[in-house]
Structures are given as C-alpha cells and as structure tokens.
From TrEMBL:
GO cellular component labels: membrane
Record InterPro entries: Acyl_transf_3_dom, Acyltransferase_3
A GO BP entry: polysaccharide biosynthetic process
Name the UniProt record assigns to this protein: Acyltransferase 3 domain-containing protein
One Pfam short name: Acyl_transf_3
A GO MF label: acyltransferase activity, transferring groups other than amino-acyl groups
Transmembrane segments: 77-100, 128-145, 177-198, 205-222, 234-252, 273-296, 308-327, 339-356, 368-387
Lineage: Eukaryota, Sar, Stramenopiles, Oomycota, Peronosporomycetes
Domain Acyltransferase: start-end pairs: 52-356
Keywords, in A-Z order: Membrane, Transmembrane, Transmembrane helix
C-alpha cells in the first residue's frame, strides 16, 4: 500500500531489508557437503603435478638396465648399477619431497593425531599399490612356469627351490634377478616419515645433522663395496642422499618463494658451473673414463662394485628443479617420459623378452637390437595399462575414501 503524499517511484526507490531467522543446518549435512568438497579436492590431490624431467631420468635408467642385462651392448661398463642407484635416488627424493610438503601443511594446521593416521595410511597404501600388484603377478607367473623356463627367463639357478610364499614375503634367498631391489625400497618407505618428522622437529637447525650425514655418505660411497643382492644397510647411503637432497630442495624452494628471490646472473653462472662439474663427474664415473682420462685421474679409491654417483645425481636434480636448463628439456622428450611411465614394467618384465630363444637366437645384430628394445617397450606398455594403471586408480580411490572418512569422522 502506498502512503499519501508519495509516489510509487518514491516507494520503489526505498531500500527494504528482510530479516529472516537463520535455521541451523543439520551437522550431518555440513559434513556431507564438506565431504563433497573434499572429494573434489582429493581428485586433484590424487594426481599430483608430475616433474616431467624426472620421468625421463627414470626412463633412461630403465633402458640402461635392459642394456646391461642384454649381455650384448656396452658390457665393459656397469651401467645397470648406475641405473639402479638412479632408481634408489629418485624414489627416496620424490617420496621425501611429497611427504615433507604434506607434513608441513599438517603442522601448520595443527592437525590431530587422527589426521596424521589417515595421512600415513594413505602414504603406505599408495606405495603398496604402486609396487606390489605387478610384483605379485610376475611371481605367480614364474611359479606356474616350468623349471627350465624359470632358469632361462629369470636366471633362477635352482628353480626347484622356488617358493611362492617366500618370494612374496621377500625372503632373502628368494630375491631372484631384479626382485632384490624391491624389499630395499619398501623397507626404506617406512623410514621416510620418521626422517621427515625428525627434520621438521629441528626447525631452523635442520641442517646441523646433515653435515655428519653427508660425511658418512661420502665415506661409504668411496670406501664401501656395494653390489646387487645385498641388504639395505649397504645401499642406505644412496637412499639417504636422495632424502637429504629432497629436504634441501624443499627448504630452498620455500625460502626463494617467500622472499621472491631471483638469482643474479653471476649466481646463475656459479650454479651452472657446479651443475656441469657434477654432471661431468657423473658421466666419467658411469663410463669409467672421459674427464678422468682427458683432464685428471680419479682420486677416489678404486673399489669394485657400484660406482658412487648418488650425491652427484642429487646435485644435478636439485639444480634442474630450481633452475631448469636444456638438460631437463631434453629429458622431458616424449619417448623418455613414456619409458619413465612404464619403467617399473620394463624393469620387472624385460627378462621375459631378452632371454627368450626367439629373440636371443636371431643371427642379425640389428634384428636382436630392435626386438630387444621394441618388444620390451610393447610388453611394458601393455603391462602398464592392464596392471599398473588400474592399481594406481585403486590407490586413488582409497585416497578419496580415506578423505571422506576423515571428514565424516568414520
């Protein structure tokens, strides 16, 4: 109704405020809405941003393992040992980096013990489904195959002693062929959360224990004999070098972003000089010569076994993470990245290809070469899509379910 003395336009121009009494929401509705938002966020979290050039490094390492086990190409070198060390370093580096970033967020939010428990369950479930399904499938296939085939394809000297239960539980005497690296990596997975939390607990003094730790890594690398089919203690310095490099990268990257640091040209030149020196030493150790023949002889003790490349590799990786160069661009090529994506299948399955009579008995060198690498890539790609990728999807599903249960309090 319009008051006398006014017009309809005057009334329409007035601001009218409606006071509506708030109706409290059901707590379960709030939790369900939160769970929906968490599910959307967890889908993004389940597929973290990939560091592309590290996929290339992993792919190159997988191809070097095939080269070493072919018993035909570059057999005067031990590139397979370098590749295994690269796998160890990359695994410890990436997992430490990811868990450290996650832990820093949880500490900043003063997360409850329950949240930490869900985080650890998610961490271990991802690691389990990344490795164990394909490993178990290969072990079962070997168990079914005749003894002669076991001996030929997977270099099992006493196939009658093959025990499926012992293989699946990583019994030391049943770590055949390439199986020996898996229990080492899985054992180190349990150490990473302890290592990360200890570093974060030290706050600004995190670097203090790194000084004696690097001294120990260098001493072990120079003086200790390491070979395949040894326990974790012999290869622990390699894993530790990757984890310490991850901490240094996270700390340095966080500091640079918080302070908006942009290195000056002279600093960049110094960093590139360090990277090139580390890369030159890495290649010289891997190929047992190069700059050691061209410039100066190797001063390190000439011990047999795996070459000591872990610290050099971490220097190159950390610098490329902070200041990418043409090296990381090269390693990001699609062919190497694809090899990196299917590297675990290449690692476990290449013996089924290169040791078959159809491939190894070919008279032509080039026929054997193309068959070795081409069929290995084909088998690994099929294995990835049939076994590895579904396992990763299952791990992502578990991550989303854990996020829902954590929010809903189940």
């Amino acid at each position: 109704m319009i008051r006398s003395g006014g017009s309809a336009n005057d009334v329409s121009g007035e601001k009218v405020t409606l006071l509506v009494q708030d109706i409290p929401e059901d707590p379960m509705d709030v939790k369900l809405r939160s769970a929906v938002s968490v599910e959307k966020a967890s889908k993004t979290a389940a597929a973290p941003t990939r560091i592309l050039f590290l996929d290339g490094v992993r792919g190159l390492a997988a191809l070097l393992v095939v080269t070493q086990h072919s018993h035909e190409y570059m057999q005067d070198l031990n590139l397979g040992a370098c590749a295994v060390d690269a796998f160890f370093v990359l695994s410890s580096f990436l997992l430490t980096m990811l868990f450290m970033k996650k832990s820093m967020k949880l500490l900043a939010r003063s997360a409850t013990y329950r949240k930490w428990a869900f985080t650890l369950v998610d961490y271990f479930s991802r690691r389990f489904f990344r490795i164990y399904p394909l490993f178990a499938l290969v072990a079962i296939v070997l168990w079914i195959l005749p003894d002669d085939v076991k001996r030929g394809l997977y270099r099992i000297e006493k196939p009658k002693d093959f025990s499926l239960v012992k293989v699946l539980t990583f019994d030391f005497d049943q770590r055949f062929f390439v199986f020996w690296t898996l229990p080492l990596e899985i054992s180190y997975y349990f150490f990473i959360p302890i290592f990360v939390l200890a570093v974060l607990k030290l706050r600004n003094y995190w670097w203090v224990p790194f000084i004696p730790a690097y001294c120990w890594v260098a001493y072990e690398g120079w003086n200790t004999f390491r070979w395949s089919h040894m326990g974790l203690s012999a290869h622990a310095p390699t894993f530790l070098a990757g984890s310490m490099a991850a901490v240094i990268f996270v700390k340095l990257d966080t500091w640079m972003k918080m302070n908006n640091v942009r290195p000056r040209p002279v600093v960049i030149y110094a960093i590139r000089t360090l990277e090139c020196t580390a890369l030159a030493l890495l290649l010289s150790l891997s190929f047992q010569g190069l700059f050691f023949n061209w410039i100066y002889a190797n001063i390190a003790p000439q011990t047999p076994g795996f070459p000591f490349i872990s610290v050099l590799l971490t220097i190159v990786v950390v610098i490329e993470m902070i200041l990418p160069s043409s090296l990381s661009t090269f390693l990001e090529c699609n062919a190497l990245r694809h090899c990196g994506k299917v590297s675990f299948s290449i690692y476990l399955l290449h013996g089924f290809v290169i040791y078959t009579d159809t491939v190894s008995n070919q008279s032509s060198y080039y026929d054997r070469m193309f068959s070795t690498y081409g069929l290995t890539m084909l088998v690994a790609t099929v294995s990835y899509h049939l076994v590895e990728y579904p396992s990763q999807l299952l791990a992502q599903y578990i991550t989303r379910e854990l996020a829902k249960r954590e929010i809903l309090g189940l």
